[in-house]
Amino acid sequence: HSGFIAIIGRPNVGKSTFMNRVIGEKIAIMSDKPQTTRNKIQGVVTTDEAQFVFIDTPGIHKPKHRLGDFMVKSAIDTLNEVDVIMFMVNADEGYGKGDEFIIEKLKQVSNPVVLVINKIDQVHPDQLLPIIDTYREKLDFDEIVPISALEGNNTDHLLDVLTKKL
Ligand code: GDP
Ligand code: MG
């Protein structure tokens, strides 16, 4: 299997942390400041079963300027070109306006979407199911996978899930 995976999600949900973990070398800029990653940065991940080309898609969040509108349009074009979309959200902040904006955009895209709930190291296990249910109501996700990109929890399972979508 091989294919292109777009990573989307609000600033600071952990997209760069995940990419850096699975790619094994730093290719995206990590920062506590939102919107540090301005370019589509690609990295290749090779497992026993698959090869993924990951695409960082920073332009999908709510635009503040006209340049932002252009970035959103370009991000939607990217989402229509890849094989699978990985939509990452933050378990310790829950559903919010930023997620809502992206979900509205995802309704315009027909590719499979895997919802990745990141930072599960920050929440009590009992909190996870209500979070999953909240997101499940918003969009018909192909899969929902909780992970901790920082600690590496369930990231191998996520790669398995993505492999099955290619
Ligand atoms: P991006 O804007 O989506 O690329 O987010 P980053 O990867 O830059 O991460 C933003 C912040 O969240 C950084 O301080 C990361 O260390 C932190 N972070 C990312 N993933 C996790 C995680 O799984 N658990 C915790 N506790 N923090 C995380
Ligand atoms: Mg980033």
Describe the protein.
The structure is a single chain. With 166 residues, this protein is α/β, with parallel strands linked by helices. The chain has one domain: P-loop containing nucleotide triphosphate hydrolases (Rossmann fold, 3-Layer(aba) Sandwich). It has five helices and six strands, in the order βαββαβαβαβα. The chain has helices spanning 15-23, 66-81, 97-106, 125-138, 155-165, and strands at 2-8, 42-46, 51-56, 84-90, 113-118, 143-146. A six-stranded mixed sheet has the order 2-3-1-4-5-6, with helices on both faces. α4 links the parallel β5 (113-118) and β6. Mean pLDDT is 87; it is low at 34-39. Residues 15-16, 28, 36-37 line the site of magnesium ion. It is a peripheral membrane protein. This is GTPase Era.
Which helices and strands, and how do they pair?
Blueprint: E1 2-8, H1 15-23, E2 42-46, E3 51-56, H2 66-81, E4 84-90, H3 97-106, E5 113-118, H4 125-138, E6 143-146, H5 155-165
